[in-house]
Amino acid sequence: MLLPWEYGVRNLARRPLRTMLTLAALSTVILLVFVVVGFIRGLEKSLSISGDRDVVLVYSVNSEENIENSAIAARTPALLAASVEGTQQRFGVTHVSPEMYLGTRVNTDENNGGLGLVRGVTTGAPLVRRSVKLIDGKWPSSGEVIVGQLAAAKLGYDKQDLAIGKQVVFENKTWEIVGQFAAGGAACESEIWCNLADLQTATKRQDLTVVALLLEPGSSTAEIELFCKERTDLELRALGETDYYQSLQQHYKPVRILAWLVVLLVSGAGVFAGLNMMYGAVAGRVREIATLQAIGYRRRAILLSIVQEGVLLAAAASLIAGAIALVLMNGLAIRFTMGAFTLRIDSVAVLFGCGIGLLLGVLGALPPAIKALRAKVAVSLKAV
Amino acid sequence: MALVELRGVSKSFTKGEETITPLDEVDLDIQAGEFVSLMGPSGTGKSTLLNLISGIDRPDRGTISVDGVEVTGLSRSKLADWRAANLGYIFQTHNLIPVLTTYENVELPTLLLKLSKSQRRQRVELALEAVGLTDRANHYPRQLSGGQEQRVGIARAIVAHPKVVVADEPTGSLDAQTSEQIQTLLQRLNRELDITLLMVTHDRDVAGIASRKLVLDQGKFVDSETAITMGV
User: Fold this and answer.
1) Which of 281-340 (A) contact B at CB < 8 A?
2) Rounded distance, CA A149 to CA A137, Å?
3) Nearest residue on chain A to B58, judged by CA atoms?
4) Measured between CB atoms, does A32 come within 8 Å of chain B?
5) Closest chain A C-alpha to B96 CA, distance in angstroms
6) pLDDT digits (tens, 9 = 90+) for A21-77
7) What pLDDT does A149 receive?
8) A6–B81: do the CB atoms touch at under 8 Å?
9) Is B112 within 8 Å of A296 when comparing Cβ atoms?
10) What is the DSSP letter of A232?
11) Of A3, A291, A298, the CB nearest to B91
């Protein structure tokens, strides 16, 4: 038979200050868990939705995984369009997007020094980059740019600094912002897009960084790969966009491992907070616990009651931390080398945060409860 | 057949290099409805005997039976169940649960029995009435006097209708006037409700209210003459 529920609940109010401090400590720990799990989920989500299965990237074989370092001949798109079959065509337009992609300092009237990602594109880009949607303004003409929803976060600027009508300066040229685009949280959402020819002029380059091709459904990359192998003079390499982002997932694996390590360490700190509170709570109740045993309560029932106290406290902390995380942290933009992504306090993060919270409650309560129940009842009854 | 039977019960403790034997081959019979007081100098095993009978400690040798059940042979969990149904324990320091009201404290042992909510309520109300604390049912221990707390402790000990009630210095922490009230209450419970009581006390006057007085010394019961020479 279990002890009354009220016993565990009211015990939490016996030392209100200590309980409140432990609640604050546990809430902080669980909030940190939410943030780290939200970070991991956001990063994973950003990379997983960034790739389109039907898109193939053709870039320099010498750049290895880093597309930014790629430099390919300007005639590559025309050669690909002419030589490779399986690229999607509609109304006589081949879905090929020649692009120049670079990381550069982007300044505004109010801010300087932010490292941004700029992509020079043609009108072929929206045909290939299907997740990109112009949500405000218009497509850029010469001297104009459109900015991704997370571009300000990537630059570390205020969103207002990249509002339509404002100006940005990069590559010694001033550009007017004429539109804003979304890409469903994909990596390109943190980029600034401008006219390819303009960017080539500004950078005094004539080459390209990458050519993106949209394949017809069911087509394979084999033919493009063959083209790249045969045209050794062009030094090209073809890779499916999803494969590219998967390789980036591997690239960020150490970051994710480190993040999980942080979750582990932070949780460990939480266990100590719980232990400290429960040891204090149980140490002051040695005689009471012995009395319950003398009355006829089994040790298991008393153990469950003590664990109930720890779990109740941890559940309250989980709720507080969860509410803070959902209201204040969810959707918060995070900068990283490849762009920006948002913290995702999704169902997995909530389950994880609350699960770890409850685990902290159990782990924090078990050792002091076991210690108290191991003591001899006859001796504990005389305890002061 | 006696309600409580102890046969050849011994118990020793090791304190540093010294071995203390508070109980040495003790035999004891307590009949149903008896009120037995247990006296003796400090450290002579009075509380140890109480703890052995109530099953919260185990003897090194010998057997203890209560109402035909050999409690020394029960497992820890079975002992807990047996205590819930057959034993009431009155503590010197009341040992009430501070976060529970008078009613909830008294109700605690009944939660371990197969009783309906109304049956539990009836038992708790009867026990509180027996100790004269019906009007304090919703008070917390901190809102009660020492005497009232001990009366709650007594109500808690009798609420499950145990076969035997053990009391470890029940008046030990009370002033003289309150002590008298508790003595009267214990006597009344024994006489009117026919509760079998085994009470440990240091106080000769308190021991006097019992129908039988036992004295322990150096691990053995001593006769009345020896007890007189010991001053107990």
Assistant:
1) 287-288, 290-300
2) 13
3) A378
4) no
5) 8
6) 989 988 998 999 999 999 888 888 877 777 788 899 999 988 876 788 899 999 999
7) 92
8) no
9) yes
10) G
11) A291
Helix and strand totals (H; E) in chain B: 8, 10
Asked if B219 and B45 touch (Cβ cutoff 8 Å), the reply is yes
> What residues have CB less than 8 Å from A166, skipping those under 6 apart?
A108, A109, A176, A177
For residue B138, the model assigns a pLDDT of 96
For the B33-57+74-230 domain, the top CATH level (class) is alpha beta
Question: Residue B225's pLDDT band (boundaries 50, 70, 90)?
Answer: low
Burial of A110 (0-12, 13-18, 19+ CB in 10 A): exposed
- Best of A9, A291, A304, A380 to substitute, by most chain B Cβ atoms within 10 angstroms, is A291
ipTM summary value: 0.92
Averaged pLDDT for residues A64-92: 85
Of B76, B89, B112, the CB nearest to A1: B112
To the nearest whole Å, the CA of B86 is away from the closest chain A CA by 10
Cβ-based contacts under 8 A for chains A and B: 76
Q: Is residue B25 within 8 Å of residue A344, measured between CB atoms?
A: no
Question: By C-alpha distance, which of B5, B149, B106, B146 is closest to B64?
Answer: B5
**How distant is the Cα of B29 from the closest Cα of chain A, in angstroms?**
22
Q: B102 and B138 in contact (C-beta within 8 Å)?
A: yes
**Measured between CB atoms, does A376 come within 8 Å of chain B?**
yes
Report how far apart, in Å, the C-alpha atoms of A246 and of each of A49, A102, A237, A266 are: 10, 21, 17, 29
Domain ranges of chain A: 5-48+253-380, 55-218
* Location of structure tokens 């003289």: B176
Laid out side by side, the sheet with B196-200 consists of B87-90, B164-168, B196-200, B35-39, B212-217, B220-222
Q: What is the DSSP string of A5-24?
A: HHHHHHHTTSSHHHHHHHHH
Nearest Cα to Cα of residue A293 among A144, A285, A238, A281: A285
Smallest Cα–Cα separation from B28: which of B54, B11, B56, B53?
B53
Mutation choice for A interface testing from B95, B101, B150, B168 by most A CBs within 10 A: B95
Percentage of residues of chain A with pLDDT beyond 90? 45
Is residue B41's pLDDT more than 90? no
- Collapsing DSSP to helix, strand or coil, B56 comes out as coil
Among all chains, which residue has been given the structure tokens 């057949």?
B1
Compute and round to an integer the Cα radius of gyration of chain A.
Answer: 29
Q: Please, which pLDDT band fits residue B22 given cuts at 50, 70 and 90?
A: confident
CB distance B56–A294 less than 8 Å? yes
Helices (H), chain B: 46-53, 76-86, 102-107, 117-130, 146-158, 176-192, 204-207, 224-230
Band of the pLDDT at A168, cuts 50, 70, 90?
very high
**CA-nearest residue of chain A to B111?**
A1
Encode pLDDT of B73-121 as tens digits. 999 999 999 999 999 999 999 999 999 999 999 999 999 999 999 999 9
Q: How far off is chain A from B232, nearest CA to CA, in Å?
A: 24
Q: How far apart are CA B63 and CA B27, in angstroms?
A: 9
Residue B231: other Cβ atoms inside 10 A: 7
Q: Are A378 and B51 in contact (CB under 8 A)?
A: yes
